[in-house]
Structure formats: structure tokens, C-alpha cells
From TrEMBL:
<keyword id="KW-0833">Ubl conjugation pathway</keyword>
<dbReference type="GO" id="GO:0061631">
    <property type="term" value="F:ubiquitin conjugating enzyme activity"/>
</dbReference>
<dbReference type="GO" id="GO:0005524">
    <property type="term" value="F:ATP binding"/>
</dbReference>
<keyword id="KW-0547">Nucleotide-binding</keyword>
<dbReference type="InterPro" id="IPR016135">
    <property type="entry name" value="UBQ-conjugating_enzyme/RWD"/>
</dbReference>
<dbReference type="InterPro" id="IPR050113">
    <property type="entry name" value="Ub_conjugating_enzyme"/>
</dbReference>
<dbReference type="InterPro" id="IPR023313">
    <property type="entry name" value="UBQ-conjugating_AS"/>
</dbReference>
<keyword id="KW-0808">Transferase</keyword>
<comment type="similarity">
    <text>Belongs to the ubiquitin-conjugating enzyme family.</text>
</comment>
<dbReference type="Pfam" id="PF00179">
    <property type="entry name" value="UQ_con"/>
</dbReference>
<feature type="active site" description="Glycyl thioester intermediate">
    <location>
        <position position="91"/>
    </location>
</feature>
<dbReference type="InterPro" id="IPR000608">
    <property type="entry name" value="UBC"/>
</dbReference>
<keyword id="KW-0067">ATP-binding</keyword>
<protein>
    <recommendedName>
        <fullName>E2 ubiquitin-conjugating enzyme</fullName>
        <ecNumber>2.3.2.23</ecNumber>
    </recommendedName>
</protein>
<feature type="domain" description="UBC core">
    <location>
        <begin position="6"/>
        <end position="166"/>
    </location>
</feature>
């Protein structure tokens, strides 16, 4: 039998809490029942945003030393956003390793802290969809388009939203 680590016990508790009290805007569960460290998340595009009505799937992968280190989150659905790398990885402050930012962009208080939960992470991603940060983009092309060619950006996102609805 596998040893129950602090990380796996905490993740099991968070999963139970989300099953008991679902949160508007997303659903989450395990990719495979025997791996508590890999979650499947579906985010519903937030109302009154360009992503409104879309269904975006992502994989959240937790490290063995969670909650001391943050998980990684990667969209498996197509995504066009300044804060999402072209390969789907989400780039937001709370998913960055704890402590001071070696590049000096973020305060330690904005970065990962062990108090974050699956819920607070996904709510931060939903917030990111609502208001992109184009100051330090993960996807430079998307950030340029967001800044300089908003109509093109809008069209691309609305195509992605339509596709996500067809795939859902």
C-alpha cells in the first residue's frame, strides 16, 4: 500500500471539499483515480469576458512536496492569452516558486504560498482570463495582439470559444 504523505492527504481533503461544495466557474477531478497528484480541471469562460461560454480543459500537476511548492497548470484545450505559453502552461504569479522573484517583477507576497488551494489557484486563473497582464507575457504574440490589434485578438478568442463548445 502507498504511504500517505502530507501532500496526498491534503489533496484528498481538497478534492472531497470540492466534491461536497462545487465552486461556480469550474469543475475538477482526478485524471486517474489512483493518482492524487494529477487533476483534470474544466474552466468555464467567465461571463462578460472574451472567453465567455467557452469550456477550457487543463491538467494540474502537483509536486510531491505540495503545498510547499506550487503545482503546474497546463491547458490541454486551445488557448490564446498573454499569460499562457504557446504550449498551454499557465503563467501567473501564484504559480511561481515561493520567495523573491529573481527577475524583480513580483513581490514575494504575490508568489506561491502554502495557503493556496486548488480552488484559489483556479479562481486566479479565471481572474487572469478576465484581465490579462501584458506587462510580462508568457505568450509575446498574444500580448502584442492584445495591445495593438484588439479586434484580431477578439476574433481569435471567439473562434477558440466556439471550438471549445463543439468539443465539449
Amino acid at each position: 500500500m502507498a504511504v500517505k504523505t502530507q501532500a496526498s492527504l491534503l489533496l484528498q481533503k481538497q478534492l472531497r471539499d470540492l466534491m461536497k461544495n462545487p465552486v461556480d466557474g469550474f469543475s475538477a477531478g482526478l485524471v486517474k483515480d489512483d493518482n492524487i497528484f494529477e487533476w483534470s480541471v474544466t474552466i468555464i469562460g467567465p461571463p462578460d469576458t472574451l472567453y465567455d461560454g467557452g469550456y477550457f480543459n487543463a491538467i494540474m500537476t502537483f509536486p510531491a512536496n505540495y503545498p510547499n511548492s506550487p503545482p503546474t497548470v497546463k491547458f490541454t484545450s486551445e488557448m490564446w492569452h498573454p499569460n499562457v505559453y504557446p504550449d498551454g502552461r499557465v503563467c501567473i504569479s501564484i504559480l511561481h516558486a515561493p520567495g523573491d522573484d529573481p527577475n524583480g517583477y513580483e513581490l514575494a507576497s504575490e508568489r506561491w504560498m502554502p495557503v493556496h488551494t486548488v480552488e484559489s489557484i483556479v479562481l486566479s486563473i479565471i481572474s487572469m482570463l478576465s484581465s490579462p497582464n501584458d506587462e510580462s507575457p508568457a505568450n509575446v504574440e498574444a500580448a502584442k495582439e492584445w495591445r495593438d490589434k484588439r479586434d484580431d485578438f477578439r476574433k481569435k478568442v471567439s473562434r477558440i470559444v466556439r471550438r471549445s463548445q463543439e468539443d465539449f
